[in-house]
Request: fold
Amino acid sequence: MCIAHRLRKSSTVRDALKLFAAVLLSGTMKINDDLHVLEVPMPLAGTVNIMNLSLIVDPVHGLTLVDTGLPSQADLVEETIAAEGFSSADLKQIILTHQDLDHVGALHPLKERTGAAVFAYVDEIPYIDGTIIPLKMPTPERLLQYPEMAERLKHYKPTPVDEAVTDGQILPRSAGVQAIATPGHSPGHMSLYFPATKTLITGDALTSADGVLNGPSRGATPNMELAMESVKKLAQLDVETIICYHGGLVTQDANAQLKRVAGI
Ligand SMILES: [Zn+2]
Reply:
């Protein structure tokens, strides 16, 4: 549905203003020929943060989306892909870094509309396909506290995963990207590494703020000890560009920053 139509459908001025803010905050950025970052707003409790989805461009095989935003954001994700000059009709694959709702939220409609094949790390699949309830699914108390979250959750559906990924695997049809198992933030969390361009997509294994790399979010990481082991593993890679889902791009002294966060 186009923005103008959604604005007309907005039931209150507040809804319309929120949608305007979301559109203004959406953005895109070309990192290199293989990779674009899609900035998608994450509104919660009166504040709006940005989620950094990645779009891998394989010249032969089409587009691969990494993570999908919140439930009810499928239209916005498709509009953001279009704003970068691509068509979501060319979306052939969706890679999920992990099970959390801000990463798998719009998976179901995006898969249904495009027929994209879904990839996730093998240990994470049961949480995504509905076999097990996602570990950080909001409690009824939390949903009472955040009615907008309850509203969004109505749009969420578990979705089958087509391809189980293992550690070190080079994923097909996606510009040679390699899966790196980085458990801790969730049991089957994975990051993605492009050896040719020394680019790392961290998911939530790391965060950043204004170009400064930080560790995983304490509040949202159930196994911090394991998560820090994963950071040490990532620090063995040679990186020039780091993309954190929460916080965005880190390019200044990327290797040194990664080693600092890893404490090595
Ligand atoms: Zn997460």
The first strand starts at residue 27 and ends at 32. The chain is about 30% helix and 30% strand.
